[in-house]
Specification:
With about 300 residues, the chain is an alpha/beta fold. It is built from 9 helices and 12 strands.
């Protein structure tokens, strides 16, 4: 079971993304390219091999890295395709070919591999979670969190989209989420929520992290659009979510479950009264998909 990508996800990327890639390349080669001197500038072809099973994600980033290095990529798979090296004789799956000068291929190699390995790893885990949702016919949203790598968030959130799950808020400016420290600073959930509503206006939703059902009631009464039931056990979550939906049936309030949820136990949290399930493990501690780039010997 796979999730179909509709539209070109590259169109989502902000104008700054190519500048970010230039910074990655600059970070990796801040001075002399000694290895590049060794291999020279002969025209070569390198093959991108997938060495572990997964879903391909991060194609625009890979393309742009090599474009900035003066190379051209020819893809044998498209973004979102799944592959399994075990189905091949040599135990490695040919994913793409990269054409360029030897020194240019090696200039982009590690930056490109790091990017596509990480992005594909996140997309692969996201796909597993999206498939579980479909298999159990749960109608809610599986989402990531803001537990992303500084400077690499765009790639990680992109991988979630390729895998068929929700990114959740992309940054602090895209939704107001009030956690324990925000509430502590204002003295109560009600005070913090009202402060947030004043500056967020009608355009920004306000979500409040709640440790108990009573806190969730206070948050909804104060005007929260979303309440996160944090670290609830599955049985308790379902009971509280149903009661909250019944009590506030005259309002459109989303209920999110988060904390302690993983690929192994997410099914236990599926319930018609739960609208969103968010997992830090979608970007935190995700295994990479192993790729290698090999320049082909000339015969």
């Amino acid at each position: 079971m796979t999730t179909t990508i509709v539209g070109n996800l590259e169109c989502l990327l902000p104008p700054s993304w190519k500048t970010t890639i230039a910074e990655w390349i600059r970070e990796d080669t801040p001075s002399f390219d000694y290895g590049g001197y060794v291999v020279g500038d002969s025209d070569e072809v390198a093959i991108l091999y997938g060495k572990s099973k997964g879903k391909l994600a991060g194609v625009p980033f890979f393309d742009e890295i090599f474009k900035q290095c003066g190379c051209k990529v020819e893809w044998l798979l498209k973004e979102g395709d799944e592959f399994d090296p075990a189905t091949t004789e040599k135990g490695r799956f040919e994913v793409a070919r990269v054409y360029g000068k030897a020194r240019s291929l090696l200039l982009g190699e590690r930056v490109a591999l790091n990017t596509i390995s990480r992005c594909s790893g996140i997309a692969t885990r996201a796909t597993k979670l999206a498939n579980l949702k479909e298999q159990h016919q749960w109608q809610g949203v599986v989402a990531g969190t803001r537990k992303t790598t500084p400077g690499f968030r765009l790639v990680e959130k992109y991988g979630m989209l390729v895998g068929g799950v929700d990114t959740h808020r992309v940054d602090l400016s895209s939704m107001i989420m009030l956690k324990d420290n925000h509430i502590w600073s204002q003295g109560s959930i009600t005070a913090a929520t009202k402060q947030a509503k004043k500056v967020g206006g009608f355009a920004l939703k306000v979500e409040v992290e709640c440790r108990t059902e009573e806190e969730a009631e206070e948050a909804i009464s104060a005007g929260a659009d979303i309440v996160m039931l944090d670290n609830f056990k599955p049985a308790d979550l379902k009971v509280s979510a149903r009661r909250l939906k019944e009590k506030f049936s005259n309002r459109t309030v989303l209920i999110e479950a988060s904390g302690g949820i993983s690929e192994e136990n997410i099914v236990d949290y599926f319930d018609n009264s739960v609208d969103v399930i968010s997992l830090g493990s979608l970007s935190h501690g995700v295994p990479i998909i192993d790729f290698s780039l090999k320049i082909q010997p000339k015969h």
